[in-house]
Amino acid sequence: MQTTLLVEDAAFFEKAIVKKLHEVGRNQIMVARNYAEAESCLDLPIGEPDLALVDLTLPDAPDGEIVELCRQRGIPTIVFTSRLDPKVRAKMLDHGVIDYVLKDSPGSLDYVADLIRKLAQNPKIGVLVLDDAPVELDAIAQIVSKHLYKVYKARSSKEALETLKTHPDIKLVLSDYFMPEQDGFAFLKEVRRRHSRDQVVVIGMSSFANPDNRVRFLKYGAADFVDKNCSPEELLLRISQNLEFIYRIEELNNMAMRDFLTGLYNRRFLFDTAAPQMKGWQDEGDSGNWLALFDLDSFKEINDELGHDYGDAVLVNFATHLKKMSNQADYIIRLGGDEFCAILRNRTEAEVTDLLSNFLEQIDKTHVRCNGKMLQIKTSIGTARIEKGNLADSLRNADMRLYSAKRAGRGRLVSSG
């Protein structure tokens, strides 16, 4: 569990910060009101925190000694203080603190909360730094690592493109302009040939103040351009803000591909995303890829007699069982109404039959309660093998077998003929 050390001697700010920490999911909080209490917290046997949020001016440590304590313990630290002193701020940033934030407005607390939320995500996000100068490459990479990103380094366009290819977690590239062999423009064009703007963000960098370079980089598909001599804070802010664009696009795409009621993938996902993927799937021996269609029995009667609230409860319950049945490689999809689809990967026909037979047994034992009423769920299932990635044929064959299951008395599985 993530643990935060909060060092704050003002009761008002302590309560406000604790509330914000809870809002961003950091519920295990060690609170210290002075240096001595912070030291005692760090000596507790429960383990050291993975993040510290500290005030600089404490009753028994008025000159920022708390930052040195956290640095010695290797704890990433954010300074949140009322102390407006450029020299102290520069010193703290040189000591490696993640950020130095002033308590000068209500928005500053929101900024800290948003920063902490992002720090929890950043270790999963790859940032590639491309620069042919080793000293500058290492310096920029060190700045980026302060916000806990997974940092990759490359000294040539060729190396950077290979790194992008082998590390799909890379979401942002910081690219120098002046490089031997292939400059930043040529690199950017190649990146855009392989990755769209909402897949990989590119920020151009240069030590030379040339407006034409900025304009060309932006026209060729860069999201931003920074001077290499900008402050570390500016660079980290630009990285964060540009990554936020990708997060928003991913969120919108995910919403477009998900069924609102059940949270499953929807019909659009099946045809726009899964179908193209299927064309590259290969069977291995007896194992193959399978499509199963599910249709809830007598669902119209449930809606008509018990109401849509009960119908929705049945659909959500059924979707939960489908998710439990599947593994990470499978796709579970709500096609619409009471029709569902499962794409089952790398299984033999016998394994698919056993899996779905067991699923039917579980469903037979399932009852849904809503508004004091109880009802048993029933479903019919038809399956088909996905041959050569042909989704249309698989859907057609599975649908015919689903219809056969309905005619045979419902609550049945038909997997062939």
From TrEMBL:
<feature type="domain" description="GGDEF">
    <location>
        <begin position="287"/>
        <end position="417"/>
    </location>
</feature>
<dbReference type="InterPro" id="IPR001789">
    <property type="entry name" value="Sig_transdc_resp-reg_receiver"/>
</dbReference>
<dbReference type="Pfam" id="PF00990">
    <property type="entry name" value="GGDEF"/>
</dbReference>
<protein>
    <recommendedName>
        <fullName>diguanylate cyclase</fullName>
        <ecNumber>2.7.7.65</ecNumber>
    </recommendedName>
</protein>
<dbReference type="InterPro" id="IPR050469">
    <property type="entry name" value="Diguanylate_Cyclase"/>
</dbReference>
<feature type="modified residue" description="4-aspartylphosphate">
    <location>
        <position position="176"/>
    </location>
</feature>
<feature type="domain" description="Response regulatory">
    <location>
        <begin position="3"/>
        <end position="118"/>
    </location>
</feature>
<dbReference type="InterPro" id="IPR029787">
    <property type="entry name" value="Nucleotide_cyclase"/>
</dbReference>
<keyword id="KW-0597">Phosphoprotein</keyword>
<dbReference type="InterPro" id="IPR043128">
    <property type="entry name" value="Rev_trsase/Diguanyl_cyclase"/>
</dbReference>
<dbReference type="InterPro" id="IPR011006">
    <property type="entry name" value="CheY-like_superfamily"/>
</dbReference>
<feature type="domain" description="Response regulatory">
    <location>
        <begin position="126"/>
        <end position="243"/>
    </location>
</feature>
<dbReference type="Pfam" id="PF00072">
    <property type="entry name" value="Response_reg"/>
</dbReference>
<dbReference type="InterPro" id="IPR000160">
    <property type="entry name" value="GGDEF_dom"/>
</dbReference>
<feature type="modified residue" description="4-aspartylphosphate">
    <location>
        <position position="55"/>
    </location>
</feature>
